[in-house]
Amino acid sequence: MAQAGLRPLKATGITVLQLNVGKLCNQTCRHCHVDAAPDRTESMSRETAALCIAALAKSEIPTVDITGGAPELNQNFRWLVEQARSLERHVMDRCNLSVLLLPAQADLAEFLAAHQVEIVASLPYYKVQQTDAQRGDGVFKKSIEGLQRLNQLGYGRPNSGLVLNLVYNPVGAFLPPKQDAIESQFRKELHKHHGIEFNRLYTITNMPISRFLEFLVESGNYDGYMERLANAFNPAAAAGVMCRYTLSVAWDGTLYDCDFNQMLNLPVDQRAPGHIRDFNPMALNDRSIVTGNHCYGCTAGPGSSCGGSVTV
After folding, report:
1. Taking the CA of residue 156 as centre, how many other CA atoms within 13 Å lie in the half-sphere pointing to its CB?
2. What is the C-alpha to C-alpha distance for residues 262 and 34, in angstroms, rounded to an integer?
3. What is d(CA 165, CA 30) in angstroms, rounded to the nearest whole number?
4. Peptide bond before 292: cis, by omega within 30 degrees of 0?
5. pLDDT at residue 31, as a whole number
6. Beta carbons within 10 angstroms of residue 89's beta carbon
7. Residue 304 CA: distances (Å) to CA of 92, 177, 255, 292
8. Over residues 182-191, mean pLDDT
9. Quick one: which of 143, 159, 77, 146 has its CA closest to 115?
10. Is 222 left (phi over 0), alpha (psi -120 to 50) or beta?
11. What's the sign of the alpha-carbon dihedral 166, 167, 168, 172?
12. Residues in a beta bridge with 300
């Protein structure tokens, strides 16, 4: 980072307010850096959600990125969407797709469409074996049904204004392929076999955190994977990492540079406000980014972020 002129790594402003509303999820995925599951109880309260909206209202942050867990299972999810949209901010929902099929969420897809929420949907692969191996038996079938339901509402269709992006994570201890190439493959296979359309596909590197870290250690792949990430360090990707323009808010309101730092309990620099109740855009815009060895995951090759590859 020093050789690239990026030490210390500094924020460049906040264009994305990412809200992790909790760890409750209807799935238990092998690669999940959040360690989310159906038995998790951490959940953002209405009080904390209101603080997030208050911070948004006194800022010009254009995008709200809601994640989890399965964010839709938080009882304040729809309220957050409605409030953010009333402030004319763009809203993204990081959706696992199978949540759309839960009986209690029967009208969820219609709600998202009505509020023009961009959906960023996880789909490890376009074949059942690889997807179910990472996300659980039967998840691929549910994911396809969820995508078809979204397509029926106009998501992913040309000129609909309803954006549907997919996310690809490698199933094993290796880096993702080139984003454009795998996107073309997904587009061809999903349309051919399931009639599914989508806007973009994002490739995200698996971070050596939580369950994926456990997999690396148990399978004897940790040292090799970390070496692979470090050897692929790309200064151009490092310059564009998402932590420079994103502020991550945990379910309890604590502030982090990114969702990965959040899971490692690495809050923002102590010279910056540490909780959403003390939100101060000027102070946060100028903060130094907290880094660690896991950050090699975002700086390897073309880079990795919540919006996919950082460089072409």
Report:
1. 23
2. 9
3. 22
4. no
5. 76
6. 18
7. 18, 11, 21, 15
8. 97
9. 77
10. alpha
11. negative
12. 233
What gap in Å lies between CA 251 and CA 79, rounded to an integer?
A: 15
Q: Summarize pLDDT for 213-223 with one digit per residue, the tens.
A: 999 999 999 99
**Strand ordering across the sheet containing 63-67:** 200-203, 164-168, 118-122, 90-95, 63-67, 16-20, 246-249, 255-256
Phi (first) and psi of residue 27, to 5 degrees: -125, 165
Residue 293: Cβ-neighbour burial (10 angstroms; 0-12, 13-18, 19+): exposed
pTM: 0.96
pLDDT of residue 169: 86
Tokens of 264: 């490692």
**The residue type at 219:** S
Q: Which residues contact 220 (CB under 8 A, 6 or more apart)?
A: none
Least confident of 6-10, 135-139, 236-240, 247-251: 135-139
CA gap 126, 131 in Å, rounded: 8
- Inter-residue contact 165 to 151 (CB < 8 Å): no
Task: State pLDDT tens for residues 63-84.
Answer: 999 999 999 999 999 999 999 9
* Position 288 pLDDT exceeds 70: yes
CB 291 within 8 A of CB 298: no
Q: How confident is the model at residue 312 (pLDDT cuts 50, 70, 90)?
A: low
Which pair of tokens denotes residue 52? 């997030």
Q: Give the residue ranges of DSSP H helices in 87-127.
A: 108-114
Question: For 121, which DSSP code?
Answer: E
Distance CA 253, CA 225 (A): 33
